[in-house]
Amino acid sequence: MDIFFHVGLGKTGSTYLQHKFFPKLKGVHYIHHTNYKKSIEIISRKQYERYFVSREFDRQFLKEIKKFAAAYPDTHPIMVLRRQDSWIASQYRRFTKNGRGIYFNEFVDLKENKGRWDIAEMNFYEKIEQLEHYFNKKPLVLLYDELRNDPKTFFKKIAAYTDTTYDLKEISLAPKHKSYNTKQLLLVRRVSRKMLQKVSEEKMDSTKTGRRIRKIATHLIMYFHWLVPKSKFEDEKLIEQHELDAIRDHFAEDWQKCLKYIEQNAPAVE
Question: What predicted TM-score, i.e. pTM, was given to this entire model?
Fold first, then answer.
């Protein structure tokens, strides 16, 4: 039995792949990401000879691959990477969209690692090593930039690795999620910070009602952002460029190791 496991990472086109590409692969049974928690049980029934599982992980990465590998160590893992500065910027944009009113330097702190996001999560080569350690099959590691700039080659590499086929005419190249502009996110961050001065984040998220109110509020703020003049945000940036430059420089060696691994292990495609 062949098993292929797309493990993410988050913010590397996972949602698009899960809805637009993976279900179109022929020659393998796709377990939708919404059924991931049941995937080990589903595979154990052995109704099919080949399975494809997908679920994007970030901070749960090691825990989840260890659990899956314990059940199916011969799984073929697949991971998509995005350069650390671009990846963490996208994570922060999502974090802000969800109404978390903190600045970028509170989100990730390179010097003392006291931010909301542990900087160890950006050691991507370590994740490759973990995949190699826990699974018996060499992982397929791909680049998010290739998915964006050359999706046809990206698709061919997955098909070659999984020994599957697909009809390109059936695959939409339109993104699954729309992105939010900087002004919308700045407004959400500003309002969220004021809200959190009155109600703690823990208290707001302690109930389903609180989480729902936060979600509705942030969507309303983004929808009506046009009511606020652009001049209100002239001197404010969502992320300072020097902050992203520092992250890129800090993880430059790690990223080069990832690129070398990808180049050396890329499947041959026509």
Answer: 0.88
